[in-house]
Amino acid sequence: MATPQRLISNSVNPANLVELETLTKVIDRLQQQNDIKGSIPYLAKIVQILDNQTIQRPPKEDKARLPHYYQQINELHKVQANAHFQLAEAQYQVYDFIACESSLTLSVKLWEKLLHYNPGYQSELRPLLIKSYETLKLCYDAMGKSQLAMYMDTRKNKLLPT
User: Fold this and answer.
1) pLDDT the model gives residue 143
2) Average pLDDT, the chain
3) How confident is the model over 102-152, as pLDDT tens digits?
4) 132/152 Cα distance (integer angstroms)
5) Dihedral-angle region of residue 33 (phi above 0 means left; psi in -120 to 50 means alpha; beta otherwise)
6) What is the CB neighbour count within 10 angstroms for residue 86?
7) CA distance 38 to 98
């Protein structure tokens, strides 16, 4: 009798991988049908799954595994930030500016942290941060928070090449 196949993962629960794949297919189908509002709960579920992922830090005496650990953390943070960004874009499209602000703020914090510790991500993350600052500015304008909108312009301008 053949043994059943199994998924093995040291850092991500395989059941979550299957769930993420299924959710992504549902989101793609809904968004192709222009049901942005209908895709938001599924995007939020993806965010929830990713935000609950943890990566086990190696013991202090195992310094050889630390670079790999930091690389995994950076990749997880990029995926988490991207998920929050996609959720924020959907929320913006349905005029849910408060929720959009919340999701974008989390993305921006993760991307800024990544840039602070890894300047090599500049070319990858700078355009995403600029777009996030622009969208946050629009959200703040829509909510009547002109001071915060101006602050987003200032932050965006700091990233633009001079």
Assistant:
1) 93
2) 87
3) 999 999 999 999 988 888 888 889 999 999 999 999 999 999 999 999 999
4) 9
5) alpha
6) 18
7) 18
Identity (one letter) of the amino acid at 40?
Answer: I
Element (H, E) at 83: helix 66-93
Reading the block at residue 122, the tokens are 């500049």
What distance, in Å, lies between the first and last C-alpha atoms of the chain?
67
Q: Which two tokens stand for residue 32?
A: 């192709």
What CA–CA distance (Å, rounded) separates 91 from 145? 18
The answer to whether 139 and 97 have CB atoms below 8 angstroms apart is yes
Q: Residue 85 carries which side chain, given as an amino acid letter?
A: F
Farthest-apart Cα atoms in the chain, separation: 69
Is the CB of residue 134 less than 8 Å from the CB of residue 155?
Answer: no
What phi and psi values does residue 54 have, to the nearest 5 degrees? -130, 155
80 CB neighbour count, 10 Å cutoff: 19
CB-based contacts of 98, cutoff 8 Å, min separation 6: 143
On whether the CB atoms of residues 103 and 132 are closer than 8 A, the answer is: no
